[in-house]
Amino acid sequence: MKKERVSIGLINPKSASNVGSVMRAAGCYQADQVLYSGHRYDRAVKMSTDTKKVSTTIPLIHIDSLGVDTLIDAVSPETKIVCVDLIQGATPLPGFSHPDNALYIFGPEDGTIDQKLVDRADFVVFVPTIGCMNLAASVNVLLYDRLAKSARAFAGDDLICQSKDINNNVKVRV
Description:
There is one protein chain. The chain has a single domain, classed as 3-Layer(aba) Sandwich (Alpha/beta knot), CATH 3.40.1280.10. It is 26% helix and 17% strand. It contains 5 helices and 7 strands, in the order βαβαββββαβαα. Helix 1 packs parallel to helix 4 (135-148). 30% of the residues are buried. It has a 7-stranded parallel beta sheet with strand order 3-2-1-6-4-7-5. It is globular and about 55 Å long. It is α/β, with parallel strands linked by helices and 174 residues long.
């Protein structure tokens, strides 16, 4: 079985709470890494909301530290680039087939993905909502869609027992 590799790319995120929530989603959905560009997050990081401390197991990497100019340049050449934003001509997420190895690029909370990055993408998708979602919500929806369309979607009680906290002892009675 081929190992999937899932990377999340954030363009100049401004909110530490959104990045913290993205990290939590990355942990829940087993992403391999979160990359980000820009410097706004670095100024806001002191107010992080990575409540599960996912950043200790999933790398959160500023692309400047890799010596590259774009998020695309931070992943291997065989990685498929998927831009996720409200962009005219994009494919609705429910009809999208996720590649095994992907970098999902999300625009900043107060902007969009640069045309040059969109032009380099293998795919451009959007979540068909009325209005735009919060950055972290968009990442959660995208990663959930990827999971729902995979073999991992058919997990059972073992995963539930592994994932729930000690305060949850509720069971379905038949």
